[in-house]
């Protein structure tokens, strides 16, 4: 059946963990809340420590056979999973909107990107590289899987971050997986687990859920060889500490505080929509969203006004309602945190759009634009991770760059100018893993992705990203005869 005809299934259905190829109940249950209504969306299994240990044991037991399976056969299974996502894209997106809050078209995009990313990533190979083959020696570089990989996922892109950033790389390289979604967005992942149960051999992929209480155990587990973590910098530090005892391999994709520096030669009316989208996609809950705008004094007022107009016009509503541009923020804790950021904006700047939560059920915050605010305010210095954007004035681009670089974060950033050479010069000195020119948020499986400074460790995507799921083995043979 094509996606268009496939009915959206009710979220009120049983969900199961995936452990050792079996779909099983959790030792406990937990409610998952729809952030647009604050109603219980579904009851969800919650794993115990013993179930986490079972999942790791199953992944460990499955590792040998999966690692010995040819990369072509592993690729075929991964592509079968991409087919399953394609076939269920509509109900998956429907469920994703209900648990995460994002507008349905954005959820559809997350699902279709996930499928497309898998297909691209699955093209990679891990050939043996011959480094030297001379009279004296033959040196080969082999890349071996690591073992059990723990994949820990946040709540902003539950599918994309799991399916595109982690699963295909880990499995293609020959590792097995224990996946742990965020407590507030486990349902779509569990739904994908039902598909995986039919595709991958028992134990190759396991999915457990928690209430923020199993991540530390997974991270410190002696039978886990690598943790691929996406989440906040604060939790990233704990992951690093937990992994230290067994010197686990780590990929950490952490928080950001992306600056957009807007030079005076641009037309504010032209750049404002792109800056707005870069800041407010997924209600601002994007690691690489624009989180602070530095605007030159000559265009400062005009850019503030353009962004405020867009914010005033934006339709904020349930993501399932047609026309919604901005859904609710994902969970109550984040909602409360964002209210304190609005207060900070009010105390240290001028709120010219939004600034209020909606008087209704659901975690709705209108897109908020704060001007006349400076570095030193919490809203500028910290990652707000929500629909509140500070706009800071500058006179000198070098000063703006210095202020953008003064952050401990270094995930992304952007320069906006019609002067290509000037923009490129500033971009090359911006201390971030990715710097865009005249755009933001553009990424894909053929482009390496990683954070500078405290925004992360390691690289995702491309061959480089695949290599992070492997251990090198150098075979260095004496080519001279043993005489
Ligand atoms: P979080 O750090 O609170 O949680 C992320 C995951 O870690 C969840 O699954 C959580 O249950 C788990 N966790 C909690 N305590 C743990 C522990 N002690 N050990 C191991 N795991 C533990 O993050 P969040 O609030 O869910 O997500 C928002 C953050 O994620 C933002 O800072 C955002 O910038 C960041 N993020 C980064 C990227 C990136 O690619 N750099 C992408 C998306 C989100």
Automatic annotation (TrEMBL):
Molecular functions (GO terms): oxidoreductase activity, acting on the aldehyde or oxo group of donors, NAD or NADP as acceptor
Signal peptide: none
Highest taxon above the source species: Bacteria
Residue ranges of every copy of the Aldehyde dehydrogenase domain listed in the record: 28-474
Keywords in alphabetical order: Membrane, Oxidoreductase, Transmembrane, Transmembrane helix
Residues passing through the membrane, by range: 146-165
Gene3D superfamilies xrefs: Aldehyde Dehydrogenase, Chain A, domain 1, Aldehyde Dehydrogenase, Chain A, domain 2
Pfam families named among the record's database cross-references: Aldedh
Active-site residues, record numbering mapped to chain: 253
Family: Belongs to the aldehyde dehydrogenase family.
Entry-linked PANTHER family: ALDEHYDE DEHYDROGENASE-RELATED
Name this polypeptide is given: Aldehyde dehydrogenase family protein
Originating species: Sphingobium terrigena
